[in-house]
Design a protein that fits this description.
Largest sheet: 6 strands, antiparallel
Number of strands: 11
Number of domains: 1
Order of helices and strands: EEEHHEEEEEHHEEHHHE
CATH class: Alpha Beta
Number of helices: 7
CATH superfamily: PPM-type phosphatase domain
Protein backbone atom coordinates (compact mmCIF):
# COMPACT_ATOMS: atom_id res chain seq x y z
CA UNK A 1 0.00 0.00 0.00
CA UNK A 2 1.28 3.46 -0.92
CA UNK A 3 -0.15 6.80 0.17
CA UNK A 4 0.52 10.47 -0.46
CA UNK A 5 -1.11 13.70 0.73
CA UNK A 6 -0.89 17.42 0.18
CA UNK A 7 -2.82 20.52 1.22
CA UNK A 8 -2.87 23.79 -0.71
CA UNK A 9 -4.28 27.17 0.25
CA UNK A 10 -5.70 27.76 -3.23
CA UNK A 11 -5.77 31.09 -5.04
CA UNK A 12 -8.40 33.03 -3.07
CA UNK A 13 -8.37 32.22 0.64
CA UNK A 14 -6.03 34.00 3.07
CA UNK A 15 -5.79 31.06 5.48
CA UNK A 16 -5.68 27.30 4.92
CA UNK A 17 -8.28 25.81 7.29
CA UNK A 18 -7.74 22.24 6.04
CA UNK A 19 -5.77 19.61 7.97
CA UNK A 20 -4.89 16.02 7.14
CA UNK A 21 -3.47 12.83 8.64
CA UNK A 22 -1.46 10.05 7.01
CA UNK A 23 -0.25 6.99 8.95
CA UNK A 24 0.35 3.41 7.89
CA UNK A 25 -3.34 2.51 8.31
CA UNK A 26 -5.28 5.69 9.15
CA UNK A 27 -5.89 8.60 6.78
CA UNK A 28 -8.09 11.65 7.25
CA UNK A 29 -8.99 15.08 5.93
CA UNK A 30 -10.72 17.90 7.82
CA UNK A 31 -12.02 21.23 6.55
CA UNK A 32 -12.56 23.78 9.31
CA UNK A 33 -15.22 26.45 9.57
CA UNK A 34 -15.48 29.50 11.76
CA UNK A 35 -14.10 33.02 11.85
CA UNK A 36 -10.88 34.39 13.37
CA UNK A 37 -8.92 31.31 12.22
CA UNK A 38 -11.17 29.14 14.43
CA UNK A 39 -11.73 26.80 11.51
CA UNK A 40 -8.02 26.07 11.41
CA UNK A 41 -8.13 25.30 15.15
CA UNK A 42 -11.10 22.95 14.75
CA UNK A 43 -9.64 20.96 11.86
CA UNK A 44 -6.28 20.63 13.60
CA UNK A 45 -7.95 19.49 16.84
CA UNK A 46 -9.95 16.86 14.94
CA UNK A 47 -6.86 15.44 13.24
CA UNK A 48 -4.72 15.48 16.40
CA UNK A 49 -7.39 13.77 18.49
CA UNK A 50 -8.01 11.18 15.77
CA UNK A 51 -4.32 10.31 15.67
CA UNK A 52 -4.21 10.01 19.46
CA UNK A 53 -6.94 7.37 19.28
CA UNK A 54 -5.20 5.22 16.66
CA UNK A 55 -4.24 2.43 19.13
CA UNK A 56 -7.91 2.30 20.17
CA UNK A 57 -9.02 0.91 16.78
CA UNK A 58 -7.44 -2.54 17.04
CA UNK A 59 -10.69 -4.24 18.00
CA UNK A 60 -14.23 -3.47 16.77
CA UNK A 61 -12.89 -0.77 14.41
CA UNK A 62 -16.27 0.45 13.13
CA UNK A 63 -17.63 0.94 16.65
CA UNK A 64 -14.39 2.51 17.85
CA UNK A 65 -14.33 4.88 14.90
CA UNK A 66 -17.84 6.06 15.76
CA UNK A 67 -16.92 6.46 19.44
CA UNK A 68 -13.81 8.43 18.51
CA UNK A 69 -15.74 10.80 16.26
CA UNK A 70 -18.18 11.34 19.15
CA UNK A 71 -15.32 12.20 21.52
CA UNK A 72 -13.80 14.57 18.97
CA UNK A 73 -17.16 16.29 18.51
CA UNK A 74 -17.49 16.77 22.27
CA UNK A 75 -13.96 18.16 22.63
CA UNK A 76 -14.34 20.67 19.81
CA UNK A 77 -17.79 21.76 20.95
CA UNK A 78 -16.54 22.31 24.50
CA UNK A 79 -13.62 24.36 23.18
CA UNK A 80 -15.97 26.47 21.06
CA UNK A 81 -18.15 27.14 24.11
CA UNK A 82 -15.28 28.01 26.44
CA UNK A 83 -13.01 30.04 24.15
CA UNK A 84 -14.45 33.27 22.78
CA UNK A 85 -12.02 33.19 19.84
CA UNK A 86 -13.36 29.78 18.83
CA UNK A 87 -17.07 30.45 19.22
CA UNK A 88 -19.13 28.62 16.61
CA UNK A 89 -16.20 26.73 15.12
CA UNK A 90 -16.53 23.29 13.59
CA UNK A 91 -15.02 21.05 10.96
CA UNK A 92 -15.73 18.32 8.50
CA UNK A 93 -13.95 15.05 9.18
CA UNK A 94 -13.54 12.10 6.83
CA UNK A 95 -11.31 9.23 7.97
CA UNK A 96 -10.24 6.00 6.29
CA UNK A 97 -9.01 3.12 8.46
CA UNK A 98 -7.59 0.08 6.67
CA UNK A 99 -7.53 -3.01 8.84
CA UNK A 100 -7.81 -6.77 8.23
CA UNK A 101 -8.67 -6.37 4.55
CA UNK A 102 -11.48 -3.90 5.19
CA UNK A 103 -11.78 -0.16 4.69
CA UNK A 104 -13.67 1.54 7.52
CA UNK A 105 -14.76 5.12 6.85
CA UNK A 106 -16.01 7.62 9.39
CA UNK A 107 -17.55 10.76 7.98
CA UNK A 108 -19.24 14.03 8.92
CA UNK A 109 -19.62 17.00 6.57
CA UNK A 110 -18.96 17.49 2.86
CA UNK A 111 -15.40 16.31 2.48
CA UNK A 112 -15.42 13.07 0.51
CA UNK A 113 -14.02 9.56 0.28
CA UNK A 114 -13.89 7.97 -3.17
CA UNK A 115 -13.04 4.44 -4.26
CA UNK A 116 -11.69 3.77 -7.74
CA UNK A 117 -12.03 0.12 -8.73
CA UNK A 118 -11.91 -1.43 -12.20
CA UNK A 119 -11.85 2.03 -13.80
CA UNK A 120 -15.06 3.11 -12.06
CA UNK A 121 -15.23 5.83 -9.39
CA UNK A 122 -17.59 5.47 -6.42
CA UNK A 123 -18.36 8.22 -3.90
CA UNK A 124 -18.38 6.28 -0.63
CA UNK A 125 -19.61 9.14 1.55
CA UNK A 126 -22.68 11.36 1.40
CA UNK A 127 -22.39 15.15 1.42
CA UNK A 128 -23.94 16.36 4.66
CA UNK A 129 -24.98 19.66 3.14
CA UNK A 130 -28.09 21.46 1.97
CA UNK A 131 -27.30 20.84 -1.71
CA UNK A 132 -26.30 17.25 -0.96
CA UNK A 133 -29.76 16.64 0.43
CA UNK A 134 -31.36 18.32 -2.57
CA UNK A 135 -29.37 16.08 -4.91
CA UNK A 136 -30.46 12.96 -3.01
CA UNK A 137 -34.08 14.11 -3.26
CA UNK A 138 -33.71 14.57 -7.01
CA UNK A 139 -34.29 18.33 -6.80
CA UNK A 140 -30.80 19.25 -8.04
CA UNK A 141 -28.30 17.61 -10.35
CA UNK A 142 -24.69 17.21 -9.23
CA UNK A 143 -23.73 19.83 -11.80
CA UNK A 144 -26.29 22.32 -10.46
CA UNK A 145 -25.09 21.66 -6.91
CA UNK A 146 -21.59 22.89 -7.76
CA UNK A 147 -22.83 26.43 -8.41
CA UNK A 148 -25.79 26.58 -6.02
CA UNK A 149 -25.63 29.62 -3.67
CA UNK A 150 -26.16 27.38 -0.62
CA UNK A 151 -23.52 24.81 -1.57
CA UNK A 152 -21.37 25.63 1.46
CA UNK A 153 -24.16 25.23 4.04
CA UNK A 154 -23.58 22.04 6.02
CA UNK A 155 -26.32 20.03 7.69
CA UNK A 156 -23.77 18.28 9.91
CA UNK A 157 -20.33 19.24 11.18
CA UNK A 158 -18.00 18.15 13.95
CA UNK A 159 -18.16 20.43 16.98
CA UNK A 160 -21.00 22.80 16.10
CA UNK A 161 -23.54 20.98 18.29
CA UNK A 162 -23.24 18.84 21.45
CA UNK A 163 -24.12 15.72 19.43
CA UNK A 164 -23.64 14.72 15.81
CA UNK A 165 -24.88 11.90 13.58
CA UNK A 166 -21.83 10.04 12.27
CA UNK A 167 -21.78 8.15 8.98
CA UNK A 168 -19.82 4.86 9.05
CA UNK A 169 -19.11 2.93 5.84
CA UNK A 170 -17.40 -0.47 5.56
CA UNK A 171 -16.00 -1.88 2.33
CA UNK A 172 -14.00 -5.03 1.68
CA UNK A 173 -10.73 -4.16 -0.04
CA UNK A 174 -9.80 -5.71 -3.37
CA UNK A 175 -6.33 -5.77 -4.95
CA UNK A 176 -5.71 -2.61 -6.94
CA UNK A 177 -8.25 -0.47 -5.07
CA UNK A 178 -7.46 3.23 -4.98
CA UNK A 179 -8.95 5.55 -2.37
CA UNK A 180 -9.11 9.34 -2.62
CA UNK A 181 -9.96 11.50 0.38
CA UNK A 182 -10.48 15.19 -0.31
CA UNK A 183 -11.97 18.41 0.96
CA UNK A 184 -14.60 20.22 -1.09
CA UNK A 185 -11.95 22.42 -2.67
CA UNK A 186 -11.35 19.47 -4.97
CA UNK A 187 -14.85 18.04 -5.42
CA UNK A 188 -16.34 21.46 -6.26
CA UNK A 189 -13.59 22.25 -8.77
CA UNK A 190 -13.39 18.92 -10.63
CA UNK A 191 -16.06 16.51 -11.81
CA UNK A 192 -15.87 12.93 -10.55
CA UNK A 193 -14.99 11.87 -14.10
CA UNK A 194 -11.98 14.19 -14.02
CA UNK A 195 -10.82 12.70 -10.72
CA UNK A 196 -11.20 9.23 -12.25
CA UNK A 197 -9.10 10.20 -15.28
CA UNK A 198 -6.22 11.31 -13.06
CA UNK A 199 -6.38 8.34 -10.69
CA UNK A 200 -6.34 5.84 -13.57
CA UNK A 201 -3.57 7.59 -15.51
CA UNK A 202 -0.75 5.24 -14.37
CA UNK A 203 0.75 7.90 -12.10
CA UNK A 204 2.11 7.38 -8.60
CA UNK A 205 0.14 8.62 -5.56
CA UNK A 206 2.31 11.77 -5.20
CA UNK A 207 1.82 12.56 -8.87
CA UNK A 208 -1.93 11.98 -8.61
CA UNK A 209 -2.21 14.29 -5.59
CA UNK A 210 -0.20 17.02 -7.29
CA UNK A 211 -2.16 16.82 -10.53
CA UNK A 212 -5.53 16.94 -8.77
CA UNK A 213 -4.53 20.00 -6.75
CA UNK A 214 -3.08 21.69 -9.83
CA UNK A 215 -6.34 21.04 -11.70
CA UNK A 216 -8.38 22.53 -8.84
CA UNK A 217 -6.24 25.65 -8.92
CA UNK A 218 -6.42 25.89 -12.71
CA UNK A 219 -10.20 25.79 -12.32
CA UNK A 220 -10.15 28.85 -10.09
CA UNK A 221 -8.61 27.72 -6.79
CA UNK A 222 -11.59 29.21 -4.95
CA UNK A 223 -11.04 27.17 -1.78
CA UNK A 224 -8.37 25.37 0.18
CA UNK A 225 -7.85 21.93 -1.32
CA UNK A 226 -6.51 18.83 0.40
CA UNK A 227 -6.09 15.43 -1.24
CA UNK A 228 -4.94 12.04 0.02
CA UNK A 229 -4.36 9.16 -2.41
CA UNK A 230 -4.13 5.63 -1.01
CA UNK A 231 -3.25 2.89 -3.50
CA UNK A 232 -3.67 -0.76 -2.51
CA UNK A 233 -1.20 -3.12 -4.14
CA UNK A 234 -2.08 -5.70 -6.76
CA UNK A 235 -1.79 -8.32 -4.03
CA UNK A 236 -3.23 -7.95 -0.51
Amino acid sequence: MEASARSDIGLVRAVNEDSFLVTDVLFAVADGLGGHEAGEVASRMAIDLLEEHLPYFRSNPADKLRETFTRINTAIHQRSMSDENCKGMGTTLTALLIQDGTAYIGHVGDSRAYLVRDNVIYQLTEDHSVVGELVRLGLLTKGEAKTHPQRHLLTRAIGTLPEVDIEIVNSKIEPGDRFILCTDGLSEAIEDSGILDVVTSNQTPPQVVDELINLANRNGGHDNVTVIAVFVGAET
